Amino acid sequence: MARVAFIVTTCHEFEGIKVLSSVLKQHGHECDCFITSEEKDFHGAVRDYAPDVLGIYATTGQEAWAHRHIEAWKKELPHLKTVMGGPHPSFDPGNLRDEGIIDAIIKAEAEYAMLDLVNAWEGNNSIELIPNVGFLRDGEPWVNPIRPVIQDLDELPFPDVDLFYKYPFLAKKRVMQVHASRGCQNSCTYCSVGLMKKEWISGKKGERFNRTKSVDYLVAEMNDILARFPHFKMVNFGDAALNMESGWIQEFAEKWPAKVGLPFACNVNINYLDEDDIEAMSRAGCVSVQFGLESGSEDVRLKVYKKGYTDKVVYGIPTLLRKHKITYRTNNIMGSPAETLDDMFNTVRTNRAIKPNGCTVLIYRPFRSTELGREDFEKERVDFSRDIGPSIQADSQMLRDDVEEVVNLQKLFNVAVYLPFGLPLVKALIKLPRNPLFDWTLLAFLWYQHAVVSGYGMVDDFKLGLKNIGQIFGKKSGGMHSYGDTQKNQFLDTLDTGQDVSV
Ligand code: B12
Ligand code: SF4
């Protein structure tokens, strides 16, 4: 039996970690998870747990957040092995160059790779033949070929919520985070999902990237959680889209209200949504949905972002959602290379026209794990001197003359959408230097739309915002880590090719 500690910097119930833990526990290992914001003494808590294996989750920009701690833990716990997983190392194994800090990485879905790795380390066996696992080979990062993604999500044990609900704040908040699926019907060029599909699927006939838990499994999972943590009032589905599989929503609408009965919010893919689905979702208890509008320009949406949403869909679906009394929020991107400032104001106008109950506005980030991001790096559109930290809400990393105005527009976007004279006002305001008032304006709208409109709870959402403020506005948190001084070129060397911002 090995002791495995997962560490994360965001106060959130991570589906990936929950499932990794449940699989490890099913095979006799012991697991715990430590969240920076929830521990009085984060460093000491992990040290005192005395793990054999430490698992670090990282999105791009978070790849070095734990290095300082790991260096110290490795001295305090000489047997400690470290493995990094999640979207960043899945596309960039460069952290392996940090010898003595990261011993291995796991690419893509990690349930069985993590089990094999922990077993191998426990038995002092070689890790070199384990699929999905990356390590240093002759001083260079090497990643083994990956196994197929898990086809039947029902074969997995229930996600281990105890890891997160040991923390009173997470267990006692109003809204529970749940996942019903993996994958996404779209392959937007600014999102990592497109390359995940290319790289993680072998092309074998019948192999699926988009998978949904059966409704019976989901209902049983929910009841298992609610039996132990009964006071959740609402559920938020973190999936890219709850309407992932045709027909699923209809069965869900029959069983969910009778067997679970909690209201819920979710993301939807508006290309695969008709009035029957919307009616079924409403019947099931859906109170709020979110979808990616991203740009007011149909051309940018279809040709650059490859989002697939025509203007007809963008204008048509909101009418149906309103008819069935479901509130809706849009996701919007500011500052992509495809858009001028005028185009971004067009996105404001589209939102004014379709009247969402809230607008999430993120700043375009050139991830090297996306089609558009890779083009940005190749065409040298990225400002390497700007360490923007982990978030896609704080700052822009693009080289563009109007970058300050773009960032200001992201902060004041909701003012432009919701105030009667918002548009001309914001056009003038974005010329001012960046200032904290703009940041607080963004936060205030976000809080109101999340907490009040979508029902996440005013106090909970306020506290959650405070806990994750570093994630939202933290400019530097060990992001833009340079592995020696080779980071600039290294990613492209090691990438073998093929919520969201809709989170
Ligand atoms: C739900 C979601 C969120 C949720 C939950 C966070 C989370 N990361 O799970 C919230 C809303 C909090 C969120 C926030 C953010 N997100 Co988000 N999110 C997603 C989304 C839509 C689904 C993730 C998911 O739950 N999948 C299902 C589970 C089962 O898979 P998984 O999490 O990938 O876990 C598997 C593997 O990654 C691996 N694994 C996971 N953890 C670990 C840990 C170890 C030690 C190991 C070895 C392996 C491992 O094994 C798991 C099981 O197979 C993805 C898009 C996508 N489809 O992947 C974007 C995505 C992960 N998010 C992204 C981004 C940018 C963010 C933010 C930075 C946005 C922001 N606020 O500025 C923050 C970062 C916060 C954080 N610390 O993660 C990007 C990351 C891109 C990149 N290259 O790094 C993604 C890929 C979308 C995109 N734009 O491309 N997100
Ligand atoms: S941005 Fe959203 S809709 Fe587009 S591929 Fe990513 S998860 Fe899917």
UniProtKB/TrEMBL annotation:
> SUPFAM superfamilies, from UniProt?
Cobalamin (vitamin B12)-binding domain, Radical SAM enzymes
| InterPro entries reported in the protein's UniProt record | BchE-like, Cobalamin-bd, Cobalamin-bd_sf, Elp3/MiaA/NifB-like_rSAM, Methyltransferase_Class_B, rSAM, rSAM_horseshoe, rSAM_sf
Please name the Pfam families in this protein's record.
B12-binding (PF02310), Radical_SAM (PF04055)
- State the GO CC annotations: cytosol
Where the record annotates domain B12-binding, the positions are 1-128
- Ranges of residues in domain Radical SAM core: 170-395
Q: Could you tell me the keywords of this UniProt record?
A: Iron, Iron-sulfur, Metal-binding, Methyltransferase, S-adenosyl-L-methionine, Transferase
What is a single molecular function from GO for this protein? cobalamin binding
PROSITE patterns, from UniProt? B12_BINDING (PS51332), RADICAL_SAM (PS51918)
Which cofactors, if any, are listed as required?
[4Fe-4S] cluster
Entry-linked PANTHER family: ANAEROBIC MAGNESIUM-PROTOPORPHYRIN IX MONOMETHYL ESTER CYCLASE-RELATED, BLL1977 PROTEIN
Under what name is this protein listed?
A: B12 binding domain protein
